[in-house]
Amino acid sequence: MTELEGVTLEDALRHPTWVMGSKITIDSATLMNKCLELIEACYLFDVPESAIEIATHPQSIIHSMVTYHDGSTIAQMSNPSMEVPIANALGEGNRLPIQFTDLDFSSMNLTFGPIPEGREMIFEMAREVCRKKGNLGAIFNAANEVAVKAFQEKQITFLNIYEVVSRTFHHFTGSNISTMEDVFEYDQQARIQAEKVIKSLN
C-alpha cells in the first residue's frame, strides 16, 4: 500500500481506459468498484460470493466471464465505453444498434492479475456484505460515498479512504432490514459515523 501514499486527486481521476464521472473513477482507482460489482453480482444472479473470483484487467476489454459446469467459459467483451451497458439496460434484454468501435483481435493483448497486495481488506468487507446481507450493504456503500467526497474535497488522503470505510463498517453490527426506511436509516447512521472518522483523521 506504500505506493498509494502519494496518490493525488488528479492521479486518481486519470483513468487509463475509461472516461467516467469523478466518483466512479475514484472507485476504480481504489478498486471499490470491484467490491460493489461483487455485491451486485451476488444479488442480481443469486450466487454465493464464494463462486465469484475477482481479477484485475488493465485493458478493460473483458467485463465479465462465466464458467459453466462443462468447464467452458464465456466472456462479455467490448471496448471500454459506458454506452454499451447503458444501451443494454435501455434495451431491456434486446440488443440495441449503437455506434461502436470494433475490437481489433489481431493486435489484442489481454492480461489479468490478482487483487493488489494490501487491498484485500475491502474485498473481505464486500464478501461479508454478500454473506450476511441485511444492513451491511447500505453501511459499506454510504461509508465509501462519504470517504470519496472527502477525498475529492481534499480533506483526507487517498489511503484514508480505506480507513474511513473500514472503521465505519466495523463500527456497526449486522442487522436485518425489512423496509426502505430501514435502509435510509442505516445509510444515514453510516454517513454520520464516517464523518466522525474523517474528523478524527484531521
Instruction: Report the radius of gyration as a whole number of Å.
Output: 18 Å
Largest sheet: 2 strands, antiparallel
| Alpha-carbon distance between the two ends | 20 Å
Proportion of beta-strand residues: 5-15%
- Please identify which CATH superfamily of the largest domain we are dealing with: RNA polymerase sigma factor, region 2, helix turn helix motif
Q: Supply the helix-strand structural class.
A: mainly alpha
Number of domains: 2
Description:
- With 202 residues, the chain is mainly alpha-helical.
- It has two domains: 2-53 and 117-201, Rna Polymerase Sigma Factor, Chain: A; 57-112, no CATH class.
- 50% of the residues lie in helices and 5% in strands.
- The protein has helices spanning 9-12, 22-30, 32-45, 83-90, 120-132, 136-152, 158-171, 180-201; strands at residues 62-67, 73-77.
- The chain has a two-stranded antiparallel sheet with strand order 1-2.
- α7 (158-171) crosses α8 (180-201).
- The longest helix has 22 residues, at 180-201.
- The mean pLDDT is 88.
Question: What are its keywords?
Answer:
202 residues; 2 strands; globular; mainly alpha
